[in-house]
Write a structure and sequence with these properties.
2 domains, alpha/beta, two-stranded antiparallel sheet, homodimer, 358 residues, 46% helix, 13 helices
């Protein structure tokens, strides 16, 4: 087992990474009082709920099983969790355990952030995406019909159990979507990791637990370094959004249904790399390396056909549009991203036209 | 104008207290970007919305007028505010201005805490209760059918404009309810203020702006001293809940309709003082002084008739019930409150029986 400590002063917490982690001795020290609510979805409940309940046998537990899917990441679903907490008289010393992917983690974290103005929160992410994306950063939230994650809060977990065993049941497509976020860390800040990924992709796709644990640890370590510098996302943290402004536009246009988040980010990173090449920051060879790595992870490179004007409109509602001016994460080089609102707009125009098939 | 600075490190903010405060020069330095959403209710909108809009003429403003009343302090009402923010494309540099009483302030603060994971927030409290209770502490939230303020967050305002002019339109009953919270500060920690209140009550009831400003400033100063020691309410801050556990039981039983919050707190403080006398902490003369001051403010002394078992049940859901054990704020002496779960239960039984009319 690897242990990575996310250093946030008195809110520091450990991420445990490895196999056979669903053990009482790991989780118990991080639980506040006696009351524990497990929040999960119907897919994951069938696979792991019993095991997690057994692990928490020493506590007063209850569980809420939500319908699976991003479209249920709403204030209405969060309300169901508040209802259970209050019906069961959970007090402010309660602990919420999120067992599932990013939707369960974000929603449960938001409820934990806002139930009685904040209770303890533990994550057991069961997707690769959630293990690398939700384990670090403290972002919680739900979607609004007019935008993703528009309602939320910052709330740090007390610990994260990233168990590679839970990835054995992960659908192939979701594994690949998770690899998109892993690749992101290589692209934005870690050229050495990028090179490792280029050679390790077959082992990762074969779900070798050691390779996966290494990828999760390195991704979380990279993310923690960025978040540690910038906990509230005023500056550097926006680097983590490489591919996300383009990606969110894809997800919004397609109604969060047909594209997985990681798939949209993959196509979005490709678009950001393309635009960086248009700006003269990446070489043609750099862009080819990005394409090859995404292709090796069997991720989509092309967004759906969206007219440039519509694409800009979809990007404008994104949170990174600051005071009306669009800001993008672009690549100065492979392994070095920048956040900027000061770019040549014709480069964006060429990239949007290229991907719209014009 | 008096200015009281609430000292919270990099989240410190000023409370401006006085008359003629609805001026652009006071508020403008505390606004983040260009977009300002004014949230108010239909009663206050008719009186002050136009003036506040004029004050904010230099910004891109919008307003939401909510129905007046505690029963609208819900997640559904908060949703209406999120809808407007997103429909108007308010970005994360937006500022929310709460113009109204505690309901508007708590709800608007909660939306500000959670819109895009936190935006700027300014309070213009138009009731005495909100001026002394919501100006300091950063508590925001909405009610749930099973309990008050069960969904919420801590979120500090950027500034507070406590304008005594807005109290001229306050209904008599609400003025008195606000005085209950003012009296609370005297009782829990400030014997000198308690004595001042005993002589100044006629001026306060006559709405003398200088007396009111003095009462607001002293109350906010006392509250800030407690909150500064204990921002997240682990310990001392619970002192501020004198009368509130009893009071919340009254409000829950009566459906938040017939009793104003301050009225319930007044009766609750009387009950807490009575129980403190039962414990031998207050003398008969002390209890008489509490009664006389509440009576001078024309506040209710008696709760509605509620059987002791039912009263205990209503108190148990209160947030101060920690790990199942009821904790109460009681008076060691006039001007000195304590929070304790370690009290003689028969004293509580005698107090509940006394007020149930047994």
């Amino acid at each position: 087992m690897r242990t990575l400590t996310v250093d946030l002063g008195d809110r520091s917490y450990p991420i445990y990474i490895g196999t056979e982690l669903l053990r009482a001795d790991l989780i118990a020290p991080h639980i506040a009082g006696r009351q524990v609510l497990i929040v999960t979805n119907d897919t994951i409940a069938a696979l792991y709920l019993e095991r997690v309940q057994a692990m928490l046998a020493g506590f007063e537990t209850a569980s809420v099983v939500l319908p699976d899917g991003e479209r249920h990441k709403t204030l209405e679903t969060a309300s169901r969790v508040y209802d259970v907490l209050l019906e069961r008289r959970f007090d402010r010393q309660s602990t919420l355990v999120a067992l599932g992917g990013g939707v369960v983690g974000d929603l449960t974290g938001f409820v934990a952030a806002t139930y009685q103005r904040g209770v303890h929160f533990i994550q057991i992410p069961t997707t690769l995406l959630a293990q690398v994306d939700s384990s670090v950063g403290g972002k919680t939230g739900v979607n609004h019909p007019l935008g993703k994650n528009m309602i939320g809060a910052f709330h740090q977990p007390r610990c994260v159990l990233a168990d590679m065993d839970t990835l054995t049941t992960l659908p192939e497509r979701e594994l690949k979507a998770g690899l998109a976020e892993v690749i992101k860390y290589g692209l934005i800040m870690d050229p050495e990791f990028l090179a490792w990924l280029e050679t390790s992709m077959p082992a990762l796709l074969a779900r070798d637990p050691e390779a996966l644990a290494q990828a999760v640890e390195r991704s979380c370590r990279d993310k923690a370094a960025v978040v540690g510098r910038d906990e509230r996302e005023a500056g550097d943290r926006a680097l983590l959004n490489l591919g996300h402004t383009f990606g969110h536009a894809i997800e919004t246009e397609t109604g969060y249904q047909s594209w997985l988040h990681g798939e949209a980010v993959a196509a979005g990173m490709h678009m950001a790399a393309h635009m960086s090449r248009e700006l003269g920051w990446l070489t043609e060879a750099d862009l080819a390396r990005v394409r090859a790595l995404l292709a090796a992870a069997e991720l989509p490179l092309q967004p759906p056909a969206i007219a440039p004007d519509r694409f800009r409109e979809l990007m404008a509602v994104d949170k990174k549009a600051l005071g009306g001016r669009l800001r993008l994460v672009l690549l100065r080089a492979l392994g070095e991203a920048v956040v900027t609102g000061d770019f040549d707009d014709t480069a964006l125009a060429r990239t949007l036209a290229h991907f719209a098939g014009a």
